[in-house]
């Protein structure tokens, strides 16, 4: 959610930089805006926004993919382990039959 909010800022900054480089240094800078009195912040504005924990953002973004990979890995490991045990038991049974005969 945090990354989605600020995703569009970089292209805008890059385009502004590019425009300033295209303009060159011949043109004077625009005059500064007149200073305006700032209104007193209301209670809603003075309260801090929710702070985003970067760890929370990371785990919300990658947890589903991580658990998918973990599940597939564990399923593969245990299926190969049990297949190995099954084939090993089949091999020992056939070797005992051939030695007894």
TrEMBL record:
The chain crosses the membrane at residues 65-84. Keywords: Membrane, Transmembrane, Transmembrane helix. Residues 42-52 have a biased composition (Basic and acidic residues). It comes from the Eukaryota. Residues 30-40 have a biased composition (Pro residues). Residues 1-52 are annotated as: Disordered. This is Uncharacterized protein. It comes from Komagataella phaffii (strain GS115 / ATCC 20864).
């Amino acid at each position: 959610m945090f990354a989605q909010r600020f995703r569009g800022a970089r292209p805008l900054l890059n385009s502004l930089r590019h425009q300033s480089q295209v303009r060159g240094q011949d043109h004077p800078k625009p005059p500064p805006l007149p200073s305006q009195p700032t209104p007193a912040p209301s209670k809603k504005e003075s309260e801090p926004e929710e702070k985003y924990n970067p760890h929370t953002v990371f785990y919300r973004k990658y947890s589903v993919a991580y658990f998918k990979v973990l599940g597939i890995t564990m399923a593969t490991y245990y299926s190969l382990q049990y297949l190995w045990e099954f084939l090993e038991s089949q091999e020992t049974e056939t070797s005992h039959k051939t030695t007894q005969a």
